[in-house]
Amino acid sequence: MAAFEDFMKLDIRVGEITKVEDFRNARKPAYKLWVDFGEEIGIKKSSAQITECYDMDELVGKQVLGVVNFPPRQIADFMSEVLILGVYSSQGVILIKPERSVKKGDKLG
Fold first, then answer.
1. Angle (CA) 18 20 23, round 5°
2. How far is CA 88 from the centre of its chain?
């Protein structure tokens, strides 16, 4: 069991996807994402296996939730700096986003 204090250690923020590229060197189909988390955090990169449910052109401008305080992780030739959150569904990974548009960098709480 995880304690509530464990959850509170996660820094989960709202970001806006600003750039998307196909991640050809990934073992599984994925995109490279650049996500703007606002002035305090800035733009962070992430690898996301969301190709089954999203085309690259529909992702730019979309708000997403991401864990911004995990250590960076090398994935093939790309350094992923944040974990973008999604739900594993029968059709593929569905991104988690705020119900309404909010300010970049707003914290989940």
1. 150
2. 14
What is the distance between the alpha carbons of residues 39 and 94, in angstroms, rounded to a whole number?
27
* pTM summary value: 0.94
pLDDT-based confidence at residue 108 (cuts at 50, 70, 90):
very high
Residue 109 has pLDDT above 90, yes or no: no
Residue in 40, 39, 30, 47 with CA at minimum distance from that of residue 84:
47
**Number of residues in the chain:** 109
102: which 2 tokens?
């909010």
**Long-range Cβ contact pairs of 102-106 (< 8 A, separation 24 or more):** 102/14, 102/63, 103/14, 103/38, 104/14, 104/15, 104/16, 104/36, 104/37, 104/38, 104/63, 105/13, 105/14, 105/15, 105/37, 105/38, 105/39, 105/40, 105/41, 106/13, 106/14, 106/38
